Amino acid sequence: MANLSSLNPQQRQAAETLHGPILILAGAGTGKTRVITYRIAHLIDQGVPPENILAVTFTNKAAREMQERIHKLLPHLKARKRDGEPPKRPTLCTFHSLCVRILRAHIEALGYKRNFVIYDESEQLAAVKKILSSISAKGEKTDPGAILALLSKFKNGGEASAAFADPSVRALAQHIRTRYESALRACNAVDFDDLILLTLRLFNEFPDVLEACRAKYRYVMADEYQDTNGSQFQLIHALTLKHRNLCVVGDDDQSIYGWRGAEIANLLDLEKHYPEVKIVKLEQNYRSTNTILTAANALIKNNTRRRAKQLWSQKGQGTKILLRACSNEEEEATELVGQIEFARLAHRISWKENAILFRTNIQSRPIETALRKAGVRYHLIGGQSFFDRREIRDFLAYLKMFINPHDDISLLRIANTPARGLSDVTMERLLAASQERQCSVFAAMKNPLVQSSFQKRTQECLATFVEFVERTRATLADPAAQHEPKVLQAWADHFLDESG
Predict the structure, then answer these.
(1) What is the CA radius of gyration of the chain?
(2) Which of 373, 401, 436 delimits the end of a domain?
(3) Does 413 share its domain with 489?
(4) The overall pTM is greater than 0.85
(5) CA 20 to 30 Å from 414, out of 120, 330, 346, 486?
(6) How far is residue 299 CA from its own chain's centroid?
(7) Is 62 a domain residue?
(8) Which helix H or strand E contains 91, and what residues bound it?
(9) Residue 311 phi, psi dihedral angles, 5° rounding
(10) Are residues 82 and 95 in the same domain?
(11) CATH number of the domain encompassing residue 67
């Protein structure tokens, strides 16, 4: 059982408000995650079935942290039952993960197959480039990234913000909009925007699906609510319109994602949709001194539209904030290193007690140079993600293609990785043939007329590749292989060895 006595009065009030809509205004460092997890635990303690609780957030990391904390409060949720079955648990996930769960069960009603693939940004860019190539829109002024950003805004109702884009780019994005949707549909693929939009479409066209989700998720919590966009708001509103058991947690003062479609009005205007909403403010900060909070409060109070709150702390006043204005990045880096060395020599503050924060990776270069020059050892956090490594992206593309060989983007990425005699020219000809016949690249590869247009050696390479794909698909589809992880592991080891 969760012991609510460890919470401060405002935190406890939020955790004990279980029914009806509630807005928890959680200032920075006020124990937001703690309140969310205690509230979920308290719901379960009060008899709410765990499987009827849904908490959505923006990152898998945040969802995992919630899960770990809840398991510490309620260990029985982690332990298996005597019959070996896992216990019923609350659903803690991202918006996109929630929609994937719903779509995997019901997307066939919309004409997709359940084994749809999800394109990440690099695969979306590849799809855009492929379309631009097919309409001869290649050129120095064509930025696929800018076009993709506009396509996302169009999908999420951001027509107004799209109006500020370069007119020629906006016109091109509008021109290929339908082609992009058709290209993904032909590959049985969706992008991240589609996950929420298709779920909303499912709810609108099939009310029984919506009612089933409402019956399952009777208590809904949404974290970082200030960062939600229009479609995410619609999703939450659809799920909670009847039972009204909605808890949103957020802070308008921390809203920084308006540039990518976040609508702060979702938080500021919550009373318009839930007039009976209860508002609880968390204002006691556990991270900072009052000197830091006073400065932050003085700055943020100038926002023209916000919900008033005043952060405070029991950590005392603390040291004064030091402000330095530098003329360039090299001078700034030198000043930073100088302050670190002064603190070490004058106050015995070790290197590991210091942290340097910067907004973009490119800003690290002058700082690293200054640290190295001064002989200061440091550890750079960040860098390239594991899943952004070439060999990992190639491996995932293989898996996607084995699931769906008509996924052109994945196939084009790995057809000649490792090298198997399928040159760029060959793949361009296959792509053109697939567009001419309105079929997938893999279907074009198997077409006898297309094969005969290549030289004998290339025909052999194509036949070998097609045979490899079909053989591997058959192996992985074998029920015996599905229950034997070593089959996939052996193939993965072989692939990684081949790709270096």
Answers:
(1) 27
(2) 373
(3) yes
(4) no
(5) 486
(6) 30
(7) yes
(8) strand 91-94
(9) -75, 145
(10) yes
(11) 3.40.50.300
The DSSP 8-state label assigned to residue 87 in this structure reads P
**Is residue 109 in a domain?**
no
- Same domain, yes or no, for 434 and 495? yes
Looking at residue 32, its amino acid is: K
Place of tokens 């996939």: 488
- Written as six digits, the tokens of 434 are 């697939």
Cβ atoms of 37 and 69 closer than 8 Å:
yes
Task: Give the number of domains in the chain.
Answer: 5
Would 342 be classed as within a structural domain? yes
Same domain, yes or no: 359 and 344: yes
| 315 contact partners, CB below 8 Å, separation of at least 6 | 288, 289, 290
Return d(Cα 411, Cα 414) in angstroms, integer.
5
Angle at CA of residue 193, ends 192 and 196, nearest 5°: 95
Both 200 and 96 in one domain: the answer is yes
CA distance 186 to 241: 35
39: which 2 tokens?
A: 């509230």
pLDDT tens for the chain, 500 residues long, are 788 999 999 999 999 999 999 999 999 999 999 999 999 999 999 999 999 999 999 999 999 999 999 999 988 887 656 566 677 899 999 999 999 999 999 999 999 999 999 999 989 999 999 898 888 655 546 788 889 988 988 887 766 666 666 788 888 888 899 999 999 999 999 999 999 999 999 999 999 999 999 999 999 999 999 999 999 999 999 999 999 999 999 999 998 888 777 899 999 999 999 999 999 999 999 999 999 999 999 999 998 889 999 999 999 999 899 999 999 999 999 999 999 999 999 999 999 999 999 888 788 889 999 999 999 999 888 766 666 778 888 888 998 999 889 999 999 999 998 888 999 899 999 999 998 998 999 999 999 999 999 999 999 999 999 999 998 888 877 776 665 666 666 666 765 565 54
Do residues 205 and 69 share a domain?
yes
**Residue type at 437 in one-letter notation:** R
- 95 and 163 both lie in a single domain: no
Closest by CA position to 329, among listed 368, 384, 302, 294: 368
Residue numbers of the domain that contains 354: 329-373
Q: Give the H/E segment covering residue 496.
A: helix 485-499
Asked if residue 448 has a cis previous peptide bond (ω within 30° of 0), the answer is no
Same-domain check for residues 72 and 200: yes
Instruction: Return the structure tokens found at 53.
Output: 């609780």
- Cα–Cα distance, 139 to 137 (Å, whole number): 6
Which CATH number characterizes residue 473's domain? 1.10.486.10
162 lies in some domain = yes
Q: In 3D, which of 114, 96, 326 has the Cα closest to residue 191? A: 96
Last residue of a domain, one of 140, 164, 187: 187
Q: What is the DSSP letter of 88?
A: P
Secondary-structure percent of the chain, ordered helix, strand, coil, rounded to 5: 60, 10, 35
